[in-house]
Automatic annotation (TrEMBL):
<dbReference type="Pfam" id="PF00450">
    <property type="entry name" value="Peptidase_S10"/>
</dbReference>
<keyword id="KW-0378">Hydrolase</keyword>
<dbReference type="InterPro" id="IPR029058">
    <property type="entry name" value="AB_hydrolase_fold"/>
</dbReference>
<dbReference type="GO" id="GO:0004185">
    <property type="term" value="F:serine-type carboxypeptidase activity"/>
</dbReference>
<protein>
    <recommendedName>
        <fullName>Carboxypeptidase</fullName>
        <ecNumber>3.4.16.-</ecNumber>
    </recommendedName>
</protein>
<keyword id="KW-0645">Protease</keyword>
<keyword id="KW-0732">Signal</keyword>
<keyword id="KW-0121">Carboxypeptidase</keyword>
<comment type="similarity">
    <text>Belongs to the peptidase S10 family.</text>
</comment>
<feature type="signal peptide">
    <location>
        <begin position="1"/>
        <end position="17"/>
    </location>
</feature>
<dbReference type="GO" id="GO:0006508">
    <property type="term" value="P:proteolysis"/>
</dbReference>
<keyword id="KW-0325">Glycoprotein</keyword>
<dbReference type="InterPro" id="IPR018202">
    <property type="entry name" value="Ser_caboxypep_ser_AS"/>
</dbReference>
<dbReference type="InterPro" id="IPR001563">
    <property type="entry name" value="Peptidase_S10"/>
</dbReference>
Length: 506
């Protein structure tokens, strides 16, 4: 009898469940998910209507206004924003223009601050950072439709995404820069034109942020601003560079490669004979035991280059050896986040891993309706990373840690370098070497060791390692790949809060 009653009860529950509409199921799932977020991640979420009121007196600003209710595929109001092309100088015959998308702060954000975000490449679009990292709406890998990004940096302040240098994304014109100083001059020239249209943003506290090759862009731009006071009516406070290119490929890729594989040996799953080959290669090339021998706290002097050269010989390309072997074992191997395996997540931007994705669906920013909604040129074929050489003859600048980064740290209120520990294309040990070989504030490197489990994220606990000395704070984020605001958004949000002075402790 008990069994029969149970069967009837289950059947009745099943009948009731079948009567719920798909819309009700979706609503219940969303409410349950929101309650879970509230319980586990105590951060006030952004709302689609919670935007600070901001107006611009220049009539030209209205030409760039974007209707937040009319963004294709976005079924919520992202609020007002401004987007379009502006020239890199005030010259009447100027043909070079950069594309931007500017967002005012959300309800809890500051009207006194402005963040500039750039992706790297060189030649990769900052709209990737907008859509999949720290923008007010997000359409990340494997997501069926855009969603509200509760960890948007608009919760902190206004933010402008700029596709730069010339040749990147929707930006127009023929690239002609030779080095990072040329790039910085053109970017500052663009910002001068931007501030003439959006003059109410003049005098704001300014933060320059970016990832990857922006480890070159950001310090050189910041240094240009500091060394040319009065050129730009913004008050530069500090810089963020994450998983940055700040040193040579020998240091950022080849020296750390063996230690990285040994740390994640179960992820790479390389066989024992190949690992012996890697060990022998590392020893013959001067990579083995480099961290233990030379990366000390404090340093004992300049850190040597293996073989006294920045060139990686054919016999010493250990990073490439590992990458090729990893692809044989895991054809979905992702150099940006090593934990990925098949199936490869669909990416609306067509670039989810080590290689471009081949897909039938159109790339989001290459859709005509999207271009029209954000005042982008309709005759430009948008790709996440440009097929155009933005440095036509290559970038002649030295790595930023060799040149301008120390000056930027010294002149900034705060500076942060952030690294995802699951990033293989640029590894955290490479950043550690670069920092310990760099002199700022009258000393070389960090004077005391980086303590393990020292980066604690509110409501989550230990999320990696952190160290602070002489105006520079260095973070290592556990489980995160190359794009930290995408892979560990709450960690990134807290770090940006610290950089901007919204929290006192790192």
């Amino acid at each position: 009898m008990l069994y029969l009653l149970s069967f009837i009860l289950i059947a009745m529950i099943g009948i009731q469940a079948r009567q719920i509409t798909p819309a009700e199921v979706k609503a219940r799932q969303r409410r349950a998910y929101e309650k879970l977020l509230e319980a586990r991640i105590p951060t006030p979420p952004i709302t689609s209507t919670g935007i600070k009121n901001i107006t611009f007196s220049n009539p030209k600003a209205s030409e760039f206004w974007v209707d937040g209710t009319a963004i294709p595929e976005v079924d919520f109001d992202i609020g007002p924003s401004w987007a379009g092309l502006l020239p890199i100088s005030g010259a009447q015959n100027e043909t070079r223009e950069l594309f931007f998308w500017f967002f005012p702060p959300a309800a809890q954000g500051s009207l006194d601050d402005l963040i500039f975000w750039t992706n790297g490449g060189p030649g990769c679009s900052s709209l990737e950072g907008l859509l999949q990292e720290n923008g007010p709406f997000s359409w990340s890998w494997g997501t069926g439709a855009p969603i509200v990004n509760q960890f948007s940096w608009t919760n902190l302040s206004s933010i402008i995404y700029i596709e730069q240098p010339v040749g990147t994304g929707f930006s127009r014109g023929t690239p002609n820069i030779k080095n990072e100083d040329d790039l910085a001059a053109q970017l500052v020239g663009f910002l001068q034109q931007f501030l003439e249209v959006f003059s109410e943003l003049k005098g704001k506290k300014f933060y320059i942020a970016g990832e990857s090759y922006a480890g070159m862009y950001v310090p050189y731009i910041a240094n240009f601003i500091f060394e040319n006071p009065g050129m730009l009516d913004l008050n530069l406070q500090g810089t963020w560079i994450s998983d940055p290119s700040i040193t040579t490929n020998v240091v950022s890729q080849n020296i750390p490669a063996l230690n990285f594989v040994n740390k994640y040996e179960n992820v790479f799953a390389l066989n024992s004979s190949f690992k012996q080959t890697l060990q022998a290669t590392a020893e013959s090339c001067g990579y083995a035991d480099y961290m233990e021998t030379f990366v000390t706290y404090p340093p004992t002097g300049p850190l040597p280059l293996p073989g006294n050269t920045t060139t990686v010989s054919r016999n010493c390309g250990i990073w490439r050896m590992i990458f090729n072997a990893a692809l044989l074992i895991n054809p979905a191997f992702n150099e940006y986040r090593i934990f990925d395996t098949f199936p490869i997540l669909w990416d609306v931007l067509g670039f989810p891993g080590s290689f471009e994705d081949i897909q039938v669906s159109p790339i989001y920013f290459d859709r005509l309706d999207v271009k029209q909604a954000i005042h982008a040129p309709t005759d430009v074929a948008w790709t996440e990373c440009s097929n155009v050489r933005v440095f036509p003859q290559g970038d002649a600048s030295q790595p930023s840690s060799f040149t301008v980064l120390p000056n930027v740290i010294e002149k900034s209120r705060r500076s942060v370098i952030v690294h995802g520990l699951a990033d293989f294309i640029l590894m955290s040990d490479g950043s550690r070497i670069a920092i310990q070989n760099m002199t700022w504030g009258g000393m070389q490197g960090f004077q005391t060791p980086i303590q393990t489990e020292s980066f604690v994220v509110d409501g989550m606990g230990v999320m990696g390692n952190m160290h602070n000395e002489r105006g520079l704070t260095y973070y290592e984020v556990a489980l995160s790949g190359h794009m930290i605001p995408q892979f560990s958004p709450k960690s990134a949000f807290q770090i940006m809060q610290y950089l901007m002075g919204f929290r006192e402790t790192p």
